[in-house]
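note to self — DONT lose this again. spent like an hour looking for the file last time. sequence + predicted structure for the chain T wanted, 174 res
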Amino acid sequence: SVAKVTDSNRDAYRGLGIAYLNNGMPDEAIEAFNKVLELSKKYDSIRLDAMKYLASCYYETEDYASAVELYTEIIDKTDKKSVDELYQLYYLRGTTYIRLDDENNAALDYEESIELNGEDYNLCSNMYYNFKAAGYQDRAESYLKRIIQAEDADAYLKGKTYYILEDYEQAEKY
């Protein structure tokens, strides 16, 4: 069944916001997600979910300061036992800090993300590409070097990492 959009139906506004976002209409999505927040008196799953989407909209519209503010609020309100949720939030806020040219806070959030999730290859390589795109080459490479230095690193991933770092001689060994 389709939820009817009324002034008190926050689920309908959430759905409307998602539809707007998925259809490339972030300004309209921001309006809908703000309505969800206006109608939500407590920090429940619907409010937190709307806040995540809203932060994503702010990121998409290059309002990075508002996105960081929302990610911070979400992190503060998220159950600390929700490790899967938290590592992603720290990653997203870290990525947003990079857009604000705040390398240090980005690195702190990325470190927190790794602490919560472990040195996952995809996570570390995404961090590498984000820092590299922002011009932080040394910081970027530090995330890939973790993969190489890990005792239990997969040989294929080590070779791939050396290749990305353009160390072709080492890459051929794997």
